[in-house]
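Below is how a single chain appears once it has passed through the pipeline. First comes the sequence as given, then the structure the pipeline wrote out for it. We keep one example in the README because the format questions we get most often are answered faster by looking than by reading.
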Amino acid sequence: MKKIFALIAAALVCAGSATAANPTFGIKAGFDMTNFWGEDMPHGMKPSYQAGVFLEYRFANAPIAIAPEIVFAAQGGKFNVGEETGLSFAKNADVTFNTNYINIPVMLKYYVTPSFSIDFGPQLGINVYSKATATAGNASATVDMGDVTNSVDFALGLGGTYNITRNAFLQARYTMGMTHVLKNDVDAQNGNIQIAFGYRF
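Resulting structure:
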């Protein structure tokens, strides 16, 4: 972990020696597949979404940019109780965890070509909604998980951005949570596969 932060710091120092171009502002939205990883939670994927805004500071004399974002992301996971636990009597019971966040990633972008960048950086998440819903047949029940969900989430993101035009782009990213989603040291971290479309103004 220390090596990762040292690499980010070194890149920022190098970028700081270059002349910064005018920042660009934009919006992005997309489709996500989210889950939990760790020993204490099933790893079922849940279709989700994201939407937010960003700034991109491109440096004039280097193929480097910094892009802070503010994104609402619907996260969580979904699994069948019977499939994950071997309980045959509950084979039709589906459990969906909705743990939604305001995420603030700060991505360091390295432009391999003028139209494609590799993106890497840390992300801070603030939990704004946490509930679990169990559904079996026509019956369902929802439990508020706010009291047992950690309010802050830290993650690392890695992906790429392809500029379709000067303004429009496609983006793919995987964000791996590094802190526990739930309290009491439950070994479950967020995982998020993201495909987004964005537009720079």
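The beta strands are 24-37, 46-58, 64-73, 76-80, 93-113, 116-136, 139-144, 152-163, 168-177, 189-200.

See the next section for the split statistics.
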